[in-house]
User: Fold these one by one.
Assistant:
Number 1:
Amino acid sequence: MPTRLIDTNAFRALRAHADAIRPVPLLELVKTPGRVAAMQHEAAGLFVDLSKNRVSDETLSLLAQLANERELSGAIAAMFGGETLNLTEGRSVLHVALRNRSERPIVSDGTDVMPGVRAVLAKMEDLVGRVRSGRWVGATGERITDVVNIGIGGSDLGPHMVCEALEPYWNTKKEGAIRPHFVSNVDGAHLARTLKDLRPETTLFLVASKTFTTEETILNAKSARAWLTSSLPPSAGGDAAVPKHFIALSTNAKEVAAFGIDVANMLEFWDWVGGRYSLWSAIGTSIALAVGFDRFVELLEGAHAMDEHFRTAPIQKNVPALMALLGVWYAAFFDAHSHAVLPYDQSLHRFAAWLQQGDMESNGKSVTREGQRIAGYTTGPIVWGEPGTNGQHAFYQLLHQGTRLVPCDFVAPLRSPYALNGGADRHHAMLLANLVAQSEALMIGKSIDTVRAELRAEGKDEATVARLAEHKVFEGNRPSNVVLFDRLDPRALGALLALYEHRIFVQGWIWNVNSFDQWGVELGKKLARTVLAEIEGGPDTGHDPSTASLVARVRASRGSSA
Ligand code: G6Q
């Protein structure tokens, strides 16, 4: 059993060192000669500025020592080497194999997984080519114009986020445009609202489910199938139309066939791909359909470039590791409960939702990999965010003046693909100006003396100055990272997502949790089955009084509306 995190030499040293760093203003740290250049990094086409963090050279060297004591390099090698890191499910963790663009074999359970990965990519390329060129037609002979991905959790968040991010690539002149849609929620509103604007003749459904047993997804898929067969003209053949309008993305061929999807139209992946790490697999088919297979490969290439950086760079220059260690530092010694991700790019409006699952499902754990209760430190933070500048007019108040320290990541491309009659430059310049200003404001704050001077300069009397001054003070001293890249193209996006995936991996490893299982989602799922049976008229199974009253209320409402 490894030494407990809090008993490592580095963690003890960091605890003492944190007491010395806390009183030092961030602005003072930033002015240390050579600091900014030393804390700005380039990796896989991303520029990452870590200089606005409450750390000194000594902190960084202690954090690197912590990584060494926890044998992080060995863990990274173990992941890329296909070792069984997901101990509770007995699986290796190989999303990196899905984007391995090198000739390097990746072995899991004694078998090189790469031939299988390449075979599925070739099948995906063929299928995507047929749909986008119009060689694949629906039951009435029309080409496909709309694709609906039906999936939830990891089978939705990644591809949805990427499709939104790559919207400028949806339409190419050479091939037909495919509009991607995503249905995840079992709330019938989600499917109904999506189908409202679609024609069954030109719609292709992708049923995206690793297990093909997820109840929400299967119900949505069944309703979509009923909509298709009942709204196509009778000449389309009823159930016979299904194979022309349904594709499965799954590991479970048996259930796919049982649903009525031709297994020839199934793109396979493997149990060593975690759901929340699966956008790089067949689960990414909606992406390839929307932007083309070549662009999908560029996404993989961008991620692979970041993988290579992560696999080979020393800890002191390893950007995902550094970002992770900074997060560990704030959680352990600055009482940081959450982490905000703030993309200054409207196309990244699903980024925080994707990361929320990736991070919180991976590291929201309270036992160690060996099954001991964690004590003396906190694990995964609450991850949240919204695109700037919208967030500025909403929750930034708390970031600037709340009582909690919230480390922030600002993320943005330097150029925008969107041209607006003469105004595009102005839009993007204003967007980026806000990003830079926010990271500056969080750090420098505004002192009481400055506030008083400003109020007096505005002609306020001394009573008003006294009454308002404290309300207008910004403590500052709040850390942030800035991630910039040239454009939000598939390569940059791939690198960005891999950066955050590896950040999660490192934090999970340092905190000694299994980042690759998700038992915490099981209990509610199981109880929902029991409650549903009762709501639909089955016998009471016995609940606490509070829950029983809710069940009764919902059951009664169904009775009255029926
Ligand atoms: C992710 C989780 C979870 C999963 C969904 C959907 O890591 O495992 O979010 O992706 O529950 O599961 P299926 O793909 O099996 O339908």
Number 2:
Amino acid sequence: MRYLIVGAGPAGCTLARAVAERTDAEVLVWERRDHIAGNTYDAPDAAGVLTHRYGPHIFHTREEEAQTFLSRFTEWYPLRHRVLADVHGRLMPVPFNLVSLRLAFEPAQAEAMERRLTEAFGYGARVSILRLRERAEPELRTLADYVYENVFRHYTRKQWDAEPDQLDPAAMSRVPVLVSEDCGYFQDPWQGMPADGFTAMFARMLDHPRIRMELGVDACARMTLDGANLRVDGERCDETVIYTGALDELMRNRLGPLPYRTLDFVFETLNQDEYQPVGVVNYTVDQPFTRITEFKKLTGQKLPGVTTIAREYPRACAPGDTPYYPIPDAQSAGRYAAYRREAERCPNLRLLGRLAEYRYYNIDAIVTRALALARTL
Ligand code: FAD
Ligand code: UDP
């Protein structure tokens, strides 16, 4: 008995380990890149700074199962992630909170808005900008307009080439307005960075006598799906295959391409101790890039006299680009559902992960889903 897992990202690695531990089967993992860990891959750059090649990743969760599972493979550097927005040169906390409000408005106006916010939602509430925009009170309308314009509108146009209200509301709810002074980017109880990096954590996860990892193998070049039949190297395959790549690619774009956003990262190493006050600064009103990450501020790496930053430029994904983000809108969801129905005709094919499920999942959600799937195999 053998399982074939396509992709060695968080989904594939977690599933491989969970299956190897729950069954006595062999687990073969195919990864087309020359490294494991998927988009969480991190490695030292030429200056020795631990950087994330595919964008900054911070682990955060309220799922105890995911936290407990990952903690078997790593110690944690306890990061409480903070993000500042650059609004016309003034830095203010994101999610927009009462501290941001006091920076953005004169004291009397800020006080009136704060009172209204607390009356409407209660101190400590997390309110989506889309919900805040529905309020009729004049103070809250002014506030909502300010936050929409200065935090969400331009950033979202850059990120998605769409207006905030054209996307699945869940996308905007990821970054609520906070009726509190909480300046953390995430509100999850567990937050941190794997002490030796994500790649090291996933390498330990794959280190199991019944897991075999093959890098540089593109499953789409070796696998075909024809109705209910899966073929590998031209032969009918009855083994269970768990696919974590893009579904339109596996299906040869039969129903048309699924849209994705990709990112161009521009890395720069500077001969200075530090570049910016926090790990991530979002450029929410100007600049063609969305954000600047300074990696040392995320990992806690001590390396005097040098630091590496990355600017992120989102754009539509063309053939050959890395598909980073499934697009959270109704039209894309409809096309994905049609692909999924086709894929479900094949009884030994399972879909898992941000690409294969075409969902805007964080690492913890993927780990939780992979553990749940392993229980059913
Ligand atoms: P991936 O990480 O994409 O891994 C899929 C793997 O499958 C890849 O290695 C790919 O090469 C391989 N593959 C695909 N097709 C094939 C094929 N045909 N043959 C062989 N191999 C194949 N989440 C957080 O929790 N915190 C964050 O701070 C965070 N920041 C993010 C920042 C950015 C810029 C992005 C894009 C995402 C971020 N995420 C974050 C989300 C996180 O990246 C995903 O939740 C996670 O990577 C999903 O894991 P996955 O295994 O499903 O997909
Ligand atoms: N967002 C925004 N301004 C910000 C931060 C986020 O407009 O300063 C919007 C944007 O549309 C983004 C979404 O909220 O895609 C979710 O943000 P999050 O930081 O969760 O995105 P991630 O980078 O994790 O994908």
